[in-house]
């Protein structure tokens, strides 16, 4: 499918969709907000082909949603992907998509809802912006999605 360039459109929604309109972008952002930084982590968690992931990561770096940061591997230098403020600012959009999906899409037969964990207090919140238990404001650094359907093999409490 040919894609239209909306980067110069006067509408901010169109310009935003030019950057984040691809579903893989939002899924990569979700994983980055859950702590994934390395190519292999994104590939394993998303079950995405290398070429698709490499293209999306490059686009997200170019758009300013992620930045590359070097790290030393066992034998050589590698790059990891760190979420930027621009990427973190999309957290409310992910929250809205999660709530909309819970309300309007059909879940698998053994449905388990996605919860929000307030990290520093180690309890669940029903609100994505203010902890419903203690009243503290929640930021992308202090909260995480708790996806109980994620396999133990992924080793995530996300």
From TrEMBL:
<dbReference type="InterPro" id="IPR036388">
    <property type="entry name" value="WH-like_DNA-bd_sf"/>
</dbReference>
<keyword id="KW-0805">Transcription regulation</keyword>
<dbReference type="InterPro" id="IPR036390">
    <property type="entry name" value="WH_DNA-bd_sf"/>
</dbReference>
<protein>
    <submittedName>
        <fullName>Helix-turn-helix transcriptional regulator</fullName>
    </submittedName>
</protein>
<keyword id="KW-0238">DNA-binding</keyword>
<dbReference type="InterPro" id="IPR002577">
    <property type="entry name" value="HTH_HxlR"/>
</dbReference>
<keyword id="KW-0804">Transcription</keyword>
<dbReference type="Pfam" id="PF01638">
    <property type="entry name" value="HxlR"/>
</dbReference>
<feature type="domain" description="HTH hxlR-type">
    <location>
        <begin position="11"/>
        <end position="109"/>
    </location>
</feature>
